[in-house]
Amino acid sequence: MSTSMSPSSDTIFQKGGPGRRAFVCPELDVPAADAETLLPARFRRLEPARLPEVSEPEIVRHYVGISKRNFDLDSGFYPLGSCTMKHNPRLHERVAALPGHARLHPLQDPERAQGALQLMWNLQEALAEIAGLPHVSLQPSAGSHGELAGVMLTRAFHEDRGQRRHKVLTPDTAHGTNPATVTMAGLEVVKLATDAAGGIDVDDLRAKADADVACLMLTNPNTLGLFDQNIEQIAALVHGVGATLYYDGANLNAVIGISRPGDMGFDIVHFNLHKSFTQPHGGGGPGSGPIAVSERIAAFLPTPLVVRREVGAHGAENGASLSGARFDLDYGSAGGAGSRSIGRLRGFHGNYGCLVRAYAYIRSLGAEGLRDVSETAVLNANYLLARLAQLGVAEHLPLAYGELCMHEFVLSGGPMKRALQIQTLDLAKRLLDFGFHPPTVYFPLLVEEALMVEPTETETKETLDAFAEALAAILAEAAEQGPEVARGAPYTTPVRRLDEVAAAKRPVIRQALT
Amino acid sequence: MTRYTATTADDLAEMLDAIGVDSIGELFERQVPPGVRLSRPLALAPGMPEQDVFAHLRDLAARNVSADDEVSFLGAGMYDHYVPALIDMLMERSEFLTPYTPYQPEISQGGLQVMFEYQTAICELTALPVSNASVYEGPSAAAAAAYMAKLHNGRSRLVVSAAMHPHTIQTLRTYAHGYGMEVVEVPMRGTHAGLDAGTTELEAWRAAIDSDTSAAFFAQPNFYGAVEDADALSAAAKAAGAADPVRADGDDRAPLVVCQVDPITLGVLRAPGECGVDVAVGEGQPLGNRLDFGGPSLGLFAAREVYLRRMPGRIAGETVDVDGKRGFVLTLQTREQHIRRERATSNICTSQALNALGAVVYLAWLGREGIVELGELLLARTHYARRQLTAIDGVHALHERPVVREFALRLDADVATVRARCARAGVNPGVDIQALTGREQDRGGLLVAITERRTRADIDRLRDVLAAAVAAEREAVPA
Questions:
Q1: For the segment B429-479, what is each residue's pLDDT rounded down to a tens digit?
Q2: Which burial class, exposed, middle or buried, applies to B99 when counting CB atoms under 10 A from its CB (0-12, 13-18, 19+)?
Q3: What is the rounded average pLDDT of the residues A445-455?
Q4: Is B387 in CB contact (< 8 Å) with chain A?
Q5: Which of 210-239 (B) contact A at CB < 8 A?
């Protein structure tokens, strides 16, 4: 028998027993009708769904119990590179849960959802200013969804001009979603090499930029944590062949208020609201991936878009609108943004609950605070890098490229592997015993035994020091006691290293039921 | 320093000293070319203390008419079901709320187990053997199924019932352009079709499907609330789209039959796996998730076993650790973008893990008997509501098909004006069908959704308010 103090891996389907229940159905308050009239037998379910049979206390014990088998951001440092695990203010949960937001139906008439539409419009305006691009769609559900929107927008832009450009350039450092998205949008990936400084190899770009290129997808700062020094030249080359420039906004949190994608020459940007504008990641979703675009792309945006109309002679009834404005959903009717839309990417208007949180964050911090976010993120990353050098860690885990970094940096575990016979995976697993979530590992692919570290701006200097010391301690342990300690790690976690090969070979992806 | 950062002047001095620069500005000057540096502050409102932000967001919320503020019969994809308090508590727990995707399984067993349990629950609900850990939401789940179909059989056409939710059809069209696939819509039988009105036209469905058809989509119940003859649609699709000749290796390349489900109906309605369906997709919001003006929610995605290795999204699998202890991991990752890159089965990076937690807790809360009881209650109240409303002068059933929790009416009056009149009486009578589909033949259509929160008293009030509104409108604007 398991207890809540030492939760087992029994699933909810293995708990309870026949006849137990948590749900009490509201009474049947309408006249009873016979079953065949309500739903003829040929449409009725044959075998009941074998859902759990558990009481409410059992459900609570079960899920609170297994929650304790999770590490989370509220409990400790989570320097997962490219994922931006910054503090999630609880204010955001409170405001998103207000019934006026949380119980608002997406098909409520726009006149009766003015608060929501105003919030969305305000957020569009703020994101446009941050990106330096005039038009925004809040519809995409996540960064990858925003990417798909962006590549489809590019395709629509060229098709509208009678061009079938089929190549999309992506650097070899790109997030995996970039090439996967290109394929889904019916275009072909052409890889670009990285130069010695960690940026795009401009000669390679020059050789590959031709009239078949639809787009260059770029993350800047890139996944090495480096701002591309040649961005202006890159933009000129790409625009020179008539292609568009797409900004993967996963790392936008490094440059808010400091440099804007639109000013760098980008036509399309996606935001990871859940990263840059702090949302709880929920163990892998939900996210939200709005896009901002330049004038020449705006006509193709997904619809509906949120628009602000000045109230004319008719006015809004019952004083329903504020400051003489009325907010509405627009389907490209005005001939401007969205008028030659690629269409809809999902149901309704996007992940509004995430938009509420991002908007609360932007209003909390304002222009100055948002710039401080990026400054502190870059400061923290560089400080951690310096501390690692001070502690001698850099000898075994050198910075892969450059000297300074933006908001994150990539170390190579190659020297560590050769000198101490432990791999990046071992180091990561040993960090678990020290109470830290490991950095992103084995990405980007071009760095041997990569460790990608993003401390974020919300961590204290003491935490950064402690993390640097933990890395140093693990390396010292390997040097003094040999590699076995790290290779056998972790020791203190609810389970130890798991057999992933067996899991994939004979997949068991649901509880066997009787 | 903001309220979410902690760098004091002393910290800053020490940190800059360690880095070997004089200022934070120098970090940017040395890395960001001057030509792309912003030379002015962003034009955004200044920051505010927490209580002021709260007040502002509360004021915005107050300008929305939510399901708290009126008796709402809105549905069409998202529904005002009761969300039990324990779901709020569990979804707000830091341990579920604030982790990332479980890349380190040793410290993510809680989240991985939730995914595993969720997959089990969805398999049970759909009577299909495999499920992923959820995708974004409903309509894009259908689009994800279309991509899986393309990867599976390499065919180029998607046949789609026009009686599906318009957002699903529109989303399929958007994605299909990217996939290089064609979308063919099969019409719905009109009111002349008597008892079968409101359902997908079976002859046209059969005629539209051939050996180029990659997948065939219908909804159960469909957008108009009508229960389709799912067995007939599945069988017809398989027969009409069979490969000719059948491949030598015996591999089944017939069109995938994709059914968009409403999960809350599956306590009573025949499950996809019980009527020849290959893939079940759907909007998961009714399962313990809030309305949230349309998201975030979750997309359901379950399938027959043969599609497992081409499924999009995260999948949790069971295994053991080095001590032989049971544990869970993300599995079959070689399908995914971070490994397979341009050859991935999807670009999807995340599941909707937190929303899926809400869904599986909800299903455990309802339980084996509860989901049937709830389904029966919805059947009874929906049946009652349809009888009450169609008894109103000037209000007709758009179809006579069985319905579970939603039904379509046709009004002999302008729907927008009638709805506005009802709203003034504190009742939102449902969705203006034509406003959503944009189709001329849907003029006069009203889609009414019933949840367990709408009591008989609420339904009776809707009847009275709608009757008055239709009468007033017909008086004001004689036909």
A1: 999 999 999 999 999 999 999 999 999 999 999 999 999 999 999 999 876
A2: buried
A3: 97
A4: no
A5: 227, 231
Last residue of a domain, one of B317, B332, B362: B362
The answer to whether A227 contacts chain B (CB < 8 Å) is yes
Indicate if B339 and B452 belong to the same structural domain: no
The phi-psi region of residue A202 (left if phi > 0; otherwise alpha if psi is between -120 and 50; otherwise beta) is: alpha
Please identify among residues 186-215 of chain B the ones whose CB lies closer than 8 Å to any CB of chain A: none
A250-302 residue pLDDT tens: 999 999 999 999 999 999 999 999 999 999 999 999 999 999 999 999 999 99
Structure tokens at A79: 């320097």
In one-letter notation, the amino acid at residue A194 is: T
| Amino acid letter, residue B56 | H
Name the helix (H) or strand (E) containing B432.
strand B431-432
**Amino acid at position B406, single letter:** E
pLDDT digit string, tens, across residues B312-371: 999 999 999 999 999 999 999 888 788 888 888 888 877 899 999 999 999 999 999 999
Closest to A289 measured CA to CA, from A445, A136, A79, A88: A136
Contact (CB, 8 A) for B222 and B76: no
> And the tokens for B233?
């649609």
Q: Are residues B358 and B397 both part of a single domain?
A: no
- Computed on alpha carbons and rounded to an integer, the radius of gyration of chain B in Å comes to 26
Q: Which of B45, B72, B327 is opposite residue A498, by nearest beta carbon?
A: B327
Residue B40 in any domain: the answer is: no
What CATH number should be reported for the domain whose range is A91-361?
A: 3.40.640.10
Instruction: State pTM to two decimals.
Output: 0.97
Q: What is the dihedral of CA B291, B292, B293, B294, to 10 degrees?
A: -70
Say how far apart CA A259 and CA B25 lie, in whole Å.
13
B41 at interface of A, judged by CB pairs closer than 8 A: yes
Q: Which two tokens stand for residue B248?
A: 């030598």
Q: What angle do CA B70, B73, B79 make, to 5 degrees?
A: 105
Q: Mapping DSSP to helix (H, G, I), strand (E, B) and coil, where does residue B32 land?
A: coil
Same-domain pairing of B217 and B185: yes
Shortest CB distance from A344 goes to which of B3, B89, B171?
Answer: B171
pLDDT tens-digit readout, A20-54: 999 999 999 999 999 999 999 999 999 999 999 99
Which chain B residues are Cβ-neighbours of A145 within 8 angstroms? Answer: 136, 140
Query: Chain B interface, mutation test: which of A253, A498, A500, most B Cβ atoms within 10 Å?
Result: A498
Same domain membership, residue B177 and residue B224: yes
B34 vs A: CB within 8 A? no
- What is the tens place of the pLDDT at every residue in B386-426? 999 999 999 999 999 999 999 999 999 999 999 999 999 99
Strand extents, DSSP E, A291-340: 291-293, 305-310, 325-330
Where does A367-501 sit in CATH, by number?
A: 3.90.1150.10
For residue A371, the SS3 value is helix
End-to-end CA distance of chain B: 67
Distance CA B275, CA B263 (A): 16
Residue with tokens 């992506």: A170
- Closest partner residue to A347 (CB to CB) among B98, B139, B319 is B139
The answer to whether residues B162 and B135 belong to one domain is yes
Q: Return residues 396-425 of B near A (CB < 8 Å).
A: 402, 404, 419, 423
Cβ neighbours of B42 in A, within 8 Å: 129-130, 256-257, 367, 370-371
Q: Last residue of a domain, which of B362, B379, B394?
A: B362
3-state secondary structure of A200: strand
> Helix B109-126 vs helix A56-67: angle between axes, to the nearest 10 degrees?
140
Is residue B421, in this structure, part of any structural domain at all? yes
**What is the C-alpha separation between B210 and B231, in angstroms, rounded?**
18
CB contact under 8 A, A39 and B61: no
